[in-house]
Amino acid sequence: MYFLTYELNGLQAIGLLSPDKENIIPLLATEQHYYGEITLADTMLTLIQQGDAALKRISELAGQVEGNKDFSLLIPVKSVLIMAPIPRPTKNIFCIAKNYADPNSVNPKYPVIFTKAPTAVIGPGGSINSHKQITSALDYEAELAVIIGKKATYVSKEDAMDYVFGYTIINDITARDLQKQHVQWFRGKSLDGSAPMGPYLVHKNAISSVNNLTISTKVNGEVRQNGSTRDFIFDIPTLISTISSGITLEPGDIVATGTPDGVGANMNPPTFLKPGDEVELIITGIGTLKNTVV
């Protein structure tokens, strides 16, 4: 299942993407149509919190639409504004640094963890603020993001995947100069608009192997990053187990899993983002996240 948050006629809603990815099944309207009641939550965060019962109901709704060939409720994707799946996370985004194996450097012994502010989140098509008043070194980082599905405290690696709801794409936009100035990375990583996210929240059952996803970045059509999650140093179970050991993860929490080689800071010469640049992130099985720098 591919979930999305969207805006239509000034109203925000959540929906399920049709199999051809051209239409949206509006969850609340469809539930009302078939069952005469609304039990599903009206935001992605609260939907995740409803757990397996909501997923069962949604699966039934999708089956009703397809089985009855009743497409009257469908909304064309092209007619809506797709937002970040979770437009405003309730907590900071957990982020992992240096998580792709590099034969030219020493791998960290433990996951390197930092966070990004919830106010950094924007959706697909949203403008990445260049913040030219304070930075001249804005960079991109394509990352697979894990969305937590239920409360997780001291979770073992063996059980960790049971706590995953699904996956999306996140661009860990970073002001490299601010990152260096402040030593601690929070400010350089948390500027407004520095966490583009989306376009969909893909339920974990729709991804056959999360450990073998191609992840790439294009800037103005030029491929800059081209990696695979098979090169993770610390896999998703390790990350969830590590973070949840003493820090409770909750439904809707986001864990960004790190970025492969190819960021602008490591180019020769370093090449940073500028107004007008189009940044496109692609992860197989999830989709394409595209934003423009202003």
Describe, in short, the structure shown:
17% of the residues lie in helices and 32% in strands. The chain is of the alpha+beta class and 294 residues long. The longest helix is centred in the first third of the chain and has 16 residues, at 52-67.
Structural class: alpha+beta
Can you identify the CATH class of the largest domain?
Alpha Beta
| DSSP E strands, number | 19
- N-to-C SSE string, H for helix and E for strand: EEEHHHEEEEEEEEEEHHEEEHEEE
Strand content: 25-35%
Biggest beta sheet attributes = 12 strands, mixed
Contiguous uncertain segments of 5+ residues: none
Q: Assign the CATH topology of the largest domain.
A: Fumarylacetoacetate hydrolase, domain 2
Report the CATH architecture of the largest domain: Alpha-Beta Complex
End-to-end Cα distance, whole Å, is 33 Å
Global geometry: globular
Report the total helices. Answer: 6
Mean pLDDT rating: 96
Pfam family, one: FAA_hydrolase
GO molecular function: 5-carboxymethyl-2-hydroxymuconate delta-isomerase activity; acetylpyruvate hydrolase activity; metal ion binding
Enzyme class: isomerase
Protein name: 5-carboxymethyl-2-hydroxymuconate Delta-isomerase
Could you explain how this protein is built, in words?
The chain is built from six helices and 19 strands. It has 294 residues and is an alpha+beta fold. It has two domains: 2-82, no CATH class; 93-293, Fumarylacetoacetate hydrolase, domain 2, CATH 3.90.850.10. Strands 1, 2, 3, 4, 5, 6, 7, 8, 11, 12, 14 and 17 form a twelve-stranded mixed sheet that branches. α1 packs across α3 (52-67). 44% of the residues are buried. The mean pLDDT is 96.
